[in-house]
Amino acid sequence: MWKGDPNGFWVVFWADQIVAFIGVHGSWLEKNGRIGEIHELVVCPEYQGKGLATALLEKAFSYCVSLGRRKIGLWVGEKNQPAIRLYLKAGFVRTGQWGKWIRMKKEVI
Ligand SMILES: CC(C)(COP(=O)(O)OP(=O)(O)OC[C@H]1O[C@@H](n2cnc3c(N)ncnc32)[C@H](O)[C@@H]1OP(=O)(O)O)[C@@H](O)C(=O)NCCC(=O)NCCS
Q1: Fewest CB within a 10 Å sphere: which of 15, 30, 87, 92?
Q2: pTM above 0.90, yes or no
Q3: How far is CA 77 from CA 3, 34, 70, 94, 106, in A?
Q4: Counting atoms of ligand 1 from 1, which one is nearest the CA of 77?
Q5: Which residues in the chain show pLDDT less than 70?
């Protein structure tokens, strides 16, 4: 991820500890052009439900828009209901499935 796009990382610190992070590739090549691709989003269990993932997604969206991207994509496990709910709330729609992985996309402009 770091090699792909070293600018697409945000971490949340609590004191000197990292408690959440997101990694997005701001220039991911798909057959229809470049999009933003969220590769990882993780919040430590004891810090979940406080809006950290929502805030990190907003950072990723702004970053992708600043690069001229119109779409953001991600893959999420079909059984990962908390994440699917979060992404639906953030405006993602389901666009496909590959095995146990659901493809979701969001228009950002
Ligand atoms: C999925 C995940 C990233 C969500 O992180 P989170 O920080 O808990 O998410 P948020 O707090 O932004 O939103 C989750 C819920 O908290 C609620 N919330 C938002 N702000 C809040 C606040 N200030 N206080 C309490 N709850 C809040 C949201 O409304 C949402 O509620 P909902 O479940 O009813 O929709 C987290 O569960 C996680 O790290 N899971 C393991 C890794 C993972 O699966 N990552 C995704 C891979 S695709």
Answers
A1: 15
A2: yes
A3: 24, 23, 24, 12, 17
A4: 48
A5: none
